[in-house]
């Protein structure tokens, strides 16, 4: 089994290049199923979630070629089925995007219920509601969600909760549906906007992405073209928290600073140095830090996918900080694992209370999900002594070249096989 050996306790220093956004890539790759032509997608991160979604569309008949490590050439003109492979689908949450993409393409979709990180109950009722209001009929059995889109056409959807996945699925189903669709209470995350920009560049008519009302006028077909994925907000935030936790000085490059404002605001509140450039943000320690409170919220709020990284960073700050989870029912399970390194974090329902400032202790820890894994790497980087992190399959789902990137910042980190 592979693991990371991290001998921490040194401030990170230098520059790190941020890769393309995972959550945009796993939406845009299935969106190519709607395109009647060849798509060239650039800035695709080299991560296992991308490999999984590529395998899924390949099993449907798409032809996918790689050019270098970060460009995919996708030709979905010869798809052969609207039935997704159950064995592949359970491996990742984003397999649910095949529902919207296949119903848009074939007016029919059979897709297994999705897998992915376990943060408690992960319902898809809002996705199914959107399909119904787009005049599809939806049935489920043990193996598949079956969407009959023979009457697919534009409609009004009012979401009861702000859901990234349901918003993206509704967009995918609506772009080729005749008539006009209005999505209200839509998610505003950067990857929702990126998906809309991709589809618009291929001929779709989507307006309002990035606000909570998205209006789509169905078009008869989409044409091929070239598109470059936005930088990963969460990967950038992870390196920013690692820089902060080690009291380092790191320039995080190839980012869209606007996407990072909820994070930089918290860093300024703590007393960290933050310098914003056009496409970069420098984070540096410049004196003692103060404990703060954070609540995760849908964009433009503080992202839930940076909650575990924030919790461990706050463990390095003197005083009591409170982090409240405002998106997922249950996203603090990893604290039990983290307690091997820092046992002064208590969880009370949706709140973690962090008594910061005591030393972290090196330990053997297991990444329990993708972002919890990132928080364990940050804990190890901030801790004197050698920590072992296993469960790397979770980390590999979403972080491109994580060992090389941290090593280039001066970290003593290696990947070893037992
Ligand atoms: C996406 C991200 C994930 C991130 C999350 C919130 C991808 C591949 N994953 O997940 O990393 O943590 O956004 O930013 O982009 N909900 C319902 N009914 C639904 C759908 C969602 O009640 O039909 C609830 C969920 O239980 C959760 C909240 O809405 O409490 C947000 O979920 P959602 O935005 O849908 O998350 P995902 O799209 O699955």
Describe the structure.
The protein is of the alpha+beta class and 418 residues long. 30% of the residues lie in helices and 26% in strands. The protein has two domains: 2-19 and 231-417, Alpha-beta prism (UDP-n-acetylglucosamine1-carboxyvinyl-transferase, Chain), CATH 3.65.10.10; 22-228, Alpha-beta prism (UDP-n-acetylglucosamine1-carboxyvinyl-transferase, Chain). Helix 1 runs parallel beside helix 7, helix 4 (97-106) packs parallel to helix 6 (164-174) and helix 8 packs parallel to helix 12 (370-381). The radius of gyration is 21 Å and the shape is globular. 52% of the residues are buried. The model has no long low-confidence stretch (mean pLDDT 95). Bound molecules: uridine-diphosphate-N-acetylglucosamine (UD1).
Q: Which tags fit this structure?
A:
alpha+beta, UDP-n-acetylglucosamine1-carboxyvinyl-transferase, Chain, 4-stranded mixed sheet, 23 strands, 30% helix, binds uridine-diphosphate-N-acetylglucosamine
Sequence-ordered SSE layout with sheet pairings:
Blueprint: E1 2-8, E2 13-17, H1 22-31, E3 38-42, H2 48-59, E4 63-67, E5 71-75, H3 86-89, H4 97-106, E6 108-111, H5 125-133, E7 137-140, E8 145-148, E9 156-158, H6 164-174, E10 180-184, H7 190-201, E11 205-207, E12 213-217, E13 225-228, H8 233-245, E14 249-253, H9 261-270, E15 273-276, E16 280-284, E17 293-295, H10 307-314, E18 319-324, H11 335-338, E19 345-348, E20 351-356, E21 364-366, H12 370-381, E22 385-390, H13 392-396, H14 402-408, E23 412-417
Parallel strand pairs: 2-14, 3-13, 9-10, 17-18, 21-22
Antiparallel strand pairs: 1-22, 1-23, 3-5, 4-5, 6-8, 7-8, 10-12, 11-12, 14-16, 15-16, 18-20, 19-20
Helix pairs in contact: 1-2, 1-7, 4-6, 5-6, 8-10, 8-12, 10-12
This protein binds uridine-diphosphate-N-acetylglucosamine.
Uridine-diphosphate-N-acetylglucosamine binds next to helix 1, helix 5 and helix 6.
């Amino acid at each position: 089994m592979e693991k990371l050996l991290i001998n921490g306790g040194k401030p990170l220093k230098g520059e790190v290049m941020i890769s393309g956004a995972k959550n945009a890539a796993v939406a845009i790759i299935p969106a190519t199923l709607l395109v009647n032509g060849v798509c060239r997608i650039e800035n695709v991160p080299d991560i296992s979630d991308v490999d999984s979604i590529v395998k899924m569309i390949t099993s449907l008949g798409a032809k996918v070629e790689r050019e270098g490590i970060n460009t995919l050439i996708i030709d979905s003109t010869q798809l052969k089925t609207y039935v997704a492979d159950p064995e592949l689908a359970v491996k990742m949450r984003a397999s649910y995007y095949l529902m919207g993409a296949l119903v848009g393409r074939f007016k029919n979709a059979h897709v297994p219920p999705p897998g992915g990180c376990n943060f408690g109950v992960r319902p898809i009722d809002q996705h199914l509601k959107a399909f119904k209001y787009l005049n599809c009929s939806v049935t489920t059995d043990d193996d598949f969600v079956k969407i009959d889109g023979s009457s697919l056409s534009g409609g009004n959807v009012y979401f009861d909760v702000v859901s990234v996945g349901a918003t993206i699925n509704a967009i995918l189903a609506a772009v080729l549906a005749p008539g006009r669709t209005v999505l209200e209470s839509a998610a505003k995350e950067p990857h929702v906007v990126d998906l809309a920009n991709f589809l618009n560049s291929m001929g779709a008519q989507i307006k309002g992405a990035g606000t909570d009302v998205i209006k789509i006028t169905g078009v008869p077909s989409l044409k091929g073209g070239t598109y470059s994925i936005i930088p990963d907000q969460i990967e950038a935030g992870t390196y920013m928290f690692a820089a902060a936790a080690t009291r380092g000085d790191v320039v995080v490059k190839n980012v869209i600073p606007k996407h990072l404002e909820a994070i930089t605001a918290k860093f300024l509140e703590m007393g960290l140095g933050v310098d914003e450039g056009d496409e970069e943000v420098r984070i540096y320690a410049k004196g003692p830090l103060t404990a703060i409170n954070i609540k995760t919220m849908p964009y433009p709020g503080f992202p839930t996918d940076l909650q575990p990284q924030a919790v461990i960073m706050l463990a390095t700050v003197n005083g009591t900080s409170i982090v409240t989870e405002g998106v997922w029912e249950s996203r603090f399970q990893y604290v039990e694992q983290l307690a091997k390194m820092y046992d002064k974090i208590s969880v009370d329902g949706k709140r973690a209370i962090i008594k910061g400032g005591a030393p972290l202790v090196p330990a053997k820890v297991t990444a329990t999900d993708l972002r919890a894994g990132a928080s364990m790497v940050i804990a190890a980087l901030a801790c004197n002594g050698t920590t072992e992190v296993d469960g790397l399959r979770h980390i590999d789902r979403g972080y491109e070249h994580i060992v090389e990137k941290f090593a280039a910042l001066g970290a003593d980190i290696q990947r070893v096989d037992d």
